[in-house]
Amino acid sequence: MSNFKIEKDMLPMKGHYFLFNAGTAPLVPYLPTFAKQLGFSTYIVGIIYTFLPIFGLLAKPLFGALGDRFEKHKFIFILFQVLTIGAFTALYFIPDLPKNPSVELSCGDGETFFHTCAKNSTELDHCKVGSLISNNGTAKCQMSCDMSSTAMWQTVCEHWKIPNYCFTEEGNLTFTSFIPKEQIKTEKGCAYLTIDKAKMFDGKEYVPKCKRLAEVSLPCKLFCPDKRVQALFGGIKTGSNDVDLQCSGNGTYYASCEHSEQELQTFAKSFAGENDHIECSSVCKIKKPWELPNICDGWEADDTIQCQPQKPDELPSLISFQGLVPLDKTERVAQCLYFKLAQITTADGAFHYPSCPSHFKNNKTTDHFHSKCRLTCTNDEMNSLFEAPSENQESHLKHYQFWLFFLFMSLNWIGMAVVVSIADAICFEKLGNKAENYGKQRLWGSVGWGVLSLLTGFLIDKFSKDNDNKDYSVAFVLMLIFLSLDVIVSCCLQYKQKKIVVNIFENVGILFSSWQTCHFFLWTILVGMCTGLLWQFLFWLLEDLAKTESCDETVYIKTLQGLVSGIQCFGGEIPFFFISGTILKKIGHLHSMTLILLGFGLRFILYSILTNPWWALPIELFQGLTFGMLFATMNSYASLISPPGIEATVMGLVGAIFEGVGTSLGSFVGGILYGQIGGPATFRIFGCMALVGCLINIMLAFCKSFTKPAVEGTESDSNDEL
Hints:
The chain is an alpha+beta fold. The protein has three domains: 8-97 and 394-720, Growth Hormone, Chain: A, CATH 1.20.1250.20; 102-155 and 315-390, no CATH class; 168-308, no CATH class. The protein has helices at residues 11-24, 31-38, 42-70, 73-91, 126-133, 150-158, 227-233, 261-269, 291-298, 380-390, 400-431, 438-463, 473-491, 504-511, 515-549, 557-608, 616-619, 623-640, 647-677, 679-701; strands spanning 102-108, 111-117, 138-146, 171-180, 185-187, 190-194, 197-200, 205-206, 218-223, 243-248, 251-256, 277-286, 318-326, 331-333, 336-340, 343-345, 351-352, 370-377. The strands form two sheets. It has a nine-stranded antiparallel β-sheet. A hairpin with a 4-residue loop joins strand 7 and strand 8 (205-206). The longest helix is centred in the last third of the chain and has 52 residues, at 557-608. The chain is rod-shaped, with a radius of gyration of 39 Å.
């Protein structure tokens, strides 16, 4: 304890690391899931995080060089802190993407249903699906469906029984009837001729069944070659208007009344003992628009020419109604969800039952009812399930919310990138020849990150009323408080640039002449890719696992994510930041780089086999290697190879390669893979890639040319070697 002393000159530096990381911790880890809640897909989030590091790639060396050239490190440092605060705050006010989900309306086995399909089964939230299926209640959905086919209107008119949309007004129905003589009957002054079979003029034959046709009576002219029928019903040439086409029970028949009892008895007796058919032609007058559809439905003659729509151009392009959906009838088939439409209510308040022509279930023609619909339901779980697959990736670019999110994310990323690179340059300048003590300064950033990550995750869950839509307000408030305090502390920072180099770019160019430095840059890209996947999609993976393991896990998902960040900091980063200088002195940078790749490989492989998200907590101890040791190794080596006077430029260059190339590629590739093959497989691929890099580093360790000094003029000890 006697050797312990406080470096007062470094206290503001420690304060900055603590406050800046404490201010960014409430938001940075949660921004991908915040974007998900706004309505963006993994692909879009991956694309956004692909461009952000590229902006950092440009900003870090640019403003680092400006700071070196004009001796304005502190001014740029504070300016970009203020920019970060403003950009973060603006994100809070971006509204969600418009949610206008679509489904497909179809017929099957006599019922109407609508369905939606995801790209793969992993995109469907099985918790919400299970909740819907177990719900005995109903939901009401306001639907607006495209009616691009006249056959769809035929279904709405005939089978839904909505006369407003019946297209045939006045016209004639012409067909040939086959009347069995033994079924000719007379009763109460009327003669009845039952129709056994009907043939339309296009040659197709149908069984004239009766379906809800009791109130319909069509006046017909009947033309029969049988003289007995002619005598009672009219001549074969002129016919008679005294015949009505009616139905009773399940049969359709002609009826003719106002005859004397003697005529009827004589007529009936004349057919006694005969069992063949009478073939008659008839022309029936259609007066009301729903009469023909009722006949076409009962006879199952939808595909005959006479039943086809007559005036489709006069019908609207959309049909709107409110549908009643029994939730327990929800079915899942692979990546699709099917919902039964039990009842509909039209704009006039009338109720209808949307039945479908079951005799078309084996018909290859799909246009009898296959419609795209927009809908909004009273059940939020249903709405969220429809929203996921309804938007294609390109459609996000049409919304101003995407461009606002992209703009403010770009500004805060540039702000953070410049602040981090300038802060590290200032820190190494103040440390002088004690660069190995960088980790002891930087660990205070991990302390701030860990404390606020734990607190933020718990508070988000605490103040969120909806498990699917978390309230991030508390995260923005904490960000504003701590970053504002950081600006105040940074203003008190005593710093003066000591070294000035005029020809910055010539000195930077010398770095690329060393094989060791080029290898270091390639390693930086590889660990940057792994870090990009970790930053953008670890929390996404945990949320997906929470929904897979148990639906109750989503209640505490932000608390779990906060614990993850806490363990990363206190169990991983802080210890390794503290001992990083000692480790680098003992094993050198090359072996340290090998260990870091090994840590990434093992960590990602373990993520890929997780089934319970809570088992991620012990895996987070790898953060010591993959972040604490990583940043100490990367920044200390960057400081060692930096020519005097351009520390901020080189630190910015290394940071730009790490983020602008490495994390950008990791975000882009990770976003595509995550959307195509899922989270576990994506982490497994990245883990194998890191292990391959680890093996290459091990082989390089046996190559003497890679153990020589990387920078001429430095001593050949373990600190300046790869």
